[in-house]
Design goal:
- It is found in: Cell membrane; Membrane.
- Belongs to the SecY/SEC61-alpha family.
- It comes from Cesiribacter andamanensis AMV16.
- There is one protein chain.
- The protein has a domain of 140 residues.
- The protein is built from 16 helices and five strands.
- The strands form two sheets. The protein has a three-stranded antiparallel β-sheet with strand order 4-1-5. A two-stranded antiparallel ribbon has the order 2-3.
Length: 440
């Protein structure tokens, strides 16, 4: 305990780090306040519970409850994430965007500008769909519906752009990745209410069941931490070079290939597609019993059909996203150019094939584990856990929380070590981070 308080004192003794933490907290408070401000000309007392049940509850959890409250930040940062995913895919498929990506700082500025414009377009479409979806009941609208829709489309778009600006300010002036931090704080804000509701449900004779739930949640979190941090280290040897009478190189380093290199993106991709079957089937629900059945099945994330398709999509997207983010050919070329090689493997094409084979072998179990984590909330609901609390047993919510917290701890740890303070861990570094990492 003394070590813990000593570390806290060291953190706030560093002026730059202290300023960044205060800035981050201030920006997060502004974000949470905006999540409780209801859209203009909307009666909050007449809002229903349409976004707190079924598949929309997943989105509502990620947005920190703003979705169901018809807040000015009801869409949050999600349109920006959608735009970023689209642009990222374009950098792989479209030569113009690939060229921009290779142009350095000027290319990144152009890509960021395109992303912002695309965010506005996506927000307008999503804002219109949200306002017309029936989540906000007609009796809650206090003015003419047409002008209410037009006005609030502008408000929702402005809210999303402001949230995007807050995320950028946190990245520049605060701690951690701003966009991820905003998502995480929205998820965490729902946790106390979900935990309290579950505790009330399990009171009295079911107290033991509640304790078992907490124990199960602890082990799930530990498993997700292992999934996030697990790496396969490929040894790299550099040839010795004599420069100016001094010998350089010769030491062994490593290329750390993450078991889950794709992170949470496969779940986000798959979850985006899982909205489509129910949406498309809804258009023919009145004319076809089959369409009506499909709509009901894919509107419930606890059905086995939904989870089977969801798991398969996650496995496919994990391989896809890993393929576009980790390039074995580029790694092999960089190693060859810098005089590095994998012991026992010829430089160049053989090294590329070797890295690709290792990546494929570790991605398969990683993708299966990720799919299991993604469907755990549905299994928790089937086991009798409250739907809101079950969201924290896996899926996007838990992966984002674990990833952002680990990233933030790494950044704080770096500040401590730079100022010659003892790190937050006994080893001076967060586990899973290698000291000798080959730069590829």
């Amino acid at each position: 305990m003394n070590k813990f308080f000593s570390t806290i004192r060291n953190i706030f003794a560093i002026e730059d780090l202290r300023t960044r933490i205060v800035n981050t907290l201030g920006f997060l408070i502004i974000f949470r306040l905006g999540s409780h401000i209801v859209l203009p000309a909307t009666d909050p007392n007449m809002l229903g519970e349409g976004a707190t049940e079924g598949i929309l509850s997943l989105l509502n959890t990620i947005l920190g409850g703003a979705f169901s409250k018809a807040a000015i930040f009801a869409l949050g940062i999600m349109p920006y994430i959608s735009a970023s995913i689209v642009v990222q895919l374009l950098t792989v498929a479209v030569p113009y965007f690939t060229k921009l990506q290779k142009e350095g700082e000027s290319g990144r500025k152009k890509i960021n500008q395109i992303t912002r414009v695309l965010t506005i377009a996506i927000t307008l479409v999503q804002g219109f769909s949200y306002l017309q979806s029936g989540i906000i009941p007609a009796e809650a609208i206090m003015i003419d519906p047409f002008w209410w829709t037009v006005t609030n489309m502008i408000v929702l778009t402005s809210g999303t752009m402001f949230v995007m600006w807050l995320g950028e300010r946190i990245t520049d002036k605060g701690i951690g990745n701003g966009i991820s931090m905003l998502i995480m704080i929205g998820i965490i804000s729902v946790l106390p209410g979900a935990l309290w509701a579950e505790a009330l449900t399990r009171g009295g004779s079911e107290l033991l069941f509640f304790i078992l739930e907490l124990v199960a949640l602890f082990f799930v979190v530990m498993a997700v931490v292992m999934l996030t941090q697990a790496t396969r280290r490929i040894p790299i040897q550099y040839a010795k070079q004599v420069i100016g009478g001094k010998v350089y190189g010769g030491q062994r380093q490593y290329i750390p290939l993450k078991i889950n290199a794709a992170g949470v993106m496969p779940i986000i991709f798959a979850q985006s597609l899982m909205f489509l079957p129910g949406l498309v089937a809804g258009f023919w629900a009145d004319q076809s019993d089959l369409a009506s059945s499909i709509g009901r099945t894919f509107s419930s994330y606890t059905s086995w059909e939904y989870n089977l398709v969801f798991a398969i999509l996650i496995i496919v997207f994990t391989f896809f996203y890993t393929a576009i983010t980790v390039n074995p050919n580029q790694i092999a070329d960089d190693l060859k150019r810098n005089g590095g090689f994998v012991p026992g493997i010829k430089p160049g094409r053989d090294t590329s094939h070797f890295i690709d084979g290792v990546l494929t072998r570790i991605t398969l179990p990683g993708s299966i584990f990720l799919a299991i984590v993604a469907i755990l909330p549905a299994l928790a609901v089937q086991a009798g856990v409250n739907q809101q609390f079950a969201q924290f047993f896996g899926g996007t919510s838990l992966l984002i929380m674990v990833g952002v917290i680990l990233d933030t701890l790494n950044q704080i740890n770096s500040y401590l070590l730079m100022r010659h303070y003892e790190g937050m861990m006994k080893s001076g570094k967060i586990r899973g981070k290698s000291e000798n990492v080959a730069v590829a």
